[in-house]
Amino acid sequence: MHRQIIHTTDAPAAIGPYSQAVRCGGTVYLSGQIPICPTTQLPVNESAEAEIHQVFRNLKAVTEAAGGDLSRVAKLNVYLTDFADSPKLNAIMGEYFAAPYPARSTVRVAGLPQGFRIEVEGVLVLD
Questions:
Q1: Residues facing residue 30 across a β-bridge
Q2: What is the pTM of this model?
Q3: Helix, strand, coil share (%) of the chain residues, nearest 5
Q4: Which of 16, 17, 97, 126 is deepest in the core (most CB within 10 A)?
Q5: Predicted local distance difference test score (pLDDT) of residue 1
Q6: Rounded to 5 degrees, what are φ and ψ at 103?
């Protein structure tokens, strides 16, 4: 199967040996997004809310670079260092996604790169 690498300067550059996303047929696998500003490559970590917004802005940019949008996201995997941020996550996610919502798993983790509170990866389905 042909694989297409997705890259956009509207999301942070990869900080390791991986692609922002990979398209295989009509499915796009979105790498985990952390709260880094794509224009400065600096952390956006002044609050949990700021981190969550930046992660979803980054995810939106990658989905658009792949030829889709957030409404076509079928599955999200969310990694949080503190479940106390779950209400904030749910409220902010509602600003970026509308019903029907994607399937989602939320996992509490001991730590994330650069001490971030959140990372989100997903699967985008294009028709």
A1: 21, 122
A2: 0.96
A3: 30, 30, 40
A4: 97
A5: 72
A6: -65, 150
